[in-house]
Amino acid sequence: MGTEAEFGKLVVFGVGLIGGSFSLALKAVGQVGEVVGFGRSLGSLSQAIDLGIIDRVGANPGAEVADADIVLIATPVAQMPDIMAKIAPYLGPETLVTDGGSTKSDVVAAARAHLGDRIDRFVPGHPIAGAENSGPAAASAMLYRGKKVVLTPLPENSTLDVARLRSAWEWCGAQVHQLTPGEHDRVFAAVSHLPHLLSFALVHDLARRENGEQFFNFAASGFRDFTRIAASHPEMWRDICLANRAALLDELDRYQTQLGELRAALDQGDGAALEEVFAVARAARRAWADGKLKE
Amino acid sequence: MGTEAEFGKLVVFGVGLIGGSFSLALKAVGQVGEVVGFGRSLGSLSQAIDLGIIDRVGANPGAEVADADIVLIATPVAQMPDIMAKIAPYLGPETLVTDGGSTKSDVVAAARAHLGDRIDRFVPGHPIAGAENSGPAAASAMLYRGKKVVLTPLPENSTLDVARLRSAWEWCGAQVHQLTPGEHDRVFAAVSHLPHLLSFALVHDLARRENGEQFFNFAASGFRDFTRIAASHPEMWRDICLANRAALLDELDRYQTQLGELRAALDQGDGAALEEVFAVARAARRAWADGKLKE
């Protein structure tokens, strides 16, 4: 009785926000059968059992992935090589492996180094979902509803495997897009990583001044919005910046060029040039906001 | 019957958001008697009458300021020299003159040039109140409640006049602070003008790329917050940047130095240095947000 789940068995490495929510979302729509979890903290694994995120705690990664339909590596990138090396020899012929990392080129490099000739099993992915909170308690079946997920298929991937992964994320309620790993890293360097760096920079520079409090005392709504992301997790963003270093340096250099143009216009008192830049920016920002409202 | 209003007669130049709200706020607490308005648009003046912002439209500036208790010049700075020159010869011996401009050094320079030996009458001010909307219809008696107002008294001002202006703004519900004009311009360059410039720069640079839409397509909440102020009025911000050019260039140079340090850390893969900057920024941003919640 009942339709068979699309994914009979899911193995998830990392049972926090990303991995936990993926499991809960698939369970909520009845599209996964058994979920086996791996993690580094017995507390988290125990909590994941209690919250219904996983059905079992795995003991032997190789044994568990052998008959898994889908494997999600939802850990920090630093932990991925070891996991990949451990599971590579045991992956089933149709076992689909994916990840949830914020950067892709480094994940792909790790996969090429540690999955070896099983690289075709690995379809990299990046769910764009808020990470304010973490851990199993933060996981939710609704996390991915209406959110974007970017898959960055490799040349070795089959069309079928990419379609299967797309299907999994669509069951989670996400809108799936595709980019190459390089495109992904450049895009997110520009619209996410660089803004974080710029915001951290502004706040840090004010905080280190002798009379810093006077500045903060008169900071208002514009400052509040611009610096909201400066309250982000330092370690997580250190890792993202280092992981996406090349693309981020490139974006930073482009931005410095733009700033230099503005500085020159300001220095020369060129109001027309300033106004042009501001008007183009305003129009683009409003068009983007309007576009999002229609989604 | 009833307490006498603190300000028998207010003359306001500019009957839009800033000037209109000042009048409405004082009227709402019964602390102003007659309000006479000057403006460049008959439509605005007529609307101001209809909305109860002003009691009369002025015809002769000199005649009106002669028996005014307080004069608020709530126009763009570009219009101030002319107004100041017109009223200077006629200001009563105790007529208090002030303004609502976002920058102060340039306003003070205009006042020194055009009020002549009546400069002692002029106590510069800057109400920090949102300017999303404009015009008489946007004016509200509540606009300044809980907001900050910065006065930048001149050496020529009497303690009494500064106290009178403080009192006026406090009747509007504002929290009054004092800085020198130079301090004001440096502070606002850092916490308001520079962030706007930086936000405009990011959006403009993305908008001018050939494949710009791809970037905007994947921009999410961090981008949204960071770029909210990039939707600000181009002309208004052109004027603010030009008016506060010196302080803004100085802040931009400091910021470029900070960015250079981050670039070097990123280039060298110095995760510890990045994390330190991010951690200091996060702590400062959170402390600021917590402090505001307690207000």
UniProtKB/TrEMBL annotation, chains A, B:
Gene Ontology biological-process annotations: tyrosine biosynthetic process
Domain Prephenate/arogenate dehydrogenase: 8-295
Top EC class for this record: oxidoreductase
Pathway assignment: Amino-acid biosynthesis; L-tyrosine biosynthesis; (4-hydroxyphenyl)pyruvate from prephenate (NAD(+) route): step 1/1
Annotated catalysed reactions: prephenate + NAD(+) = 3-(4-hydroxyphenyl)pyruvate + CO2 + NADH
Gene Ontology MF annotations: NAD+ binding; prephenate dehydrogenase (NAD+) activity; prephenate dehydrogenase (NADP+) activity
Pfam family name, one: PDH_C
InterPro entries associated with the record: 6-PGluconate_DH-like_C_sf (IPR008927), NAD(P)-bd_dom_sf (IPR036291), PDH_C (IPR046825), PDH_N (IPR046826), Preph/Arog_dehydrog (IPR050812), Prephen_DH (IPR003099)
Keyword Transcription attached: no
Similarity comment: family membership: Belongs to the prephenate/arogenate dehydrogenase family.
Protein name per Swiss-Prot or TrEMBL: prephenate dehydrogenase
Native source organism of the sequence: Propionivibrio dicarboxylicus
Lineage of the organism: Bacteria, Pseudomonadati, Pseudomonadota, Betaproteobacteria, Rhodocyclales
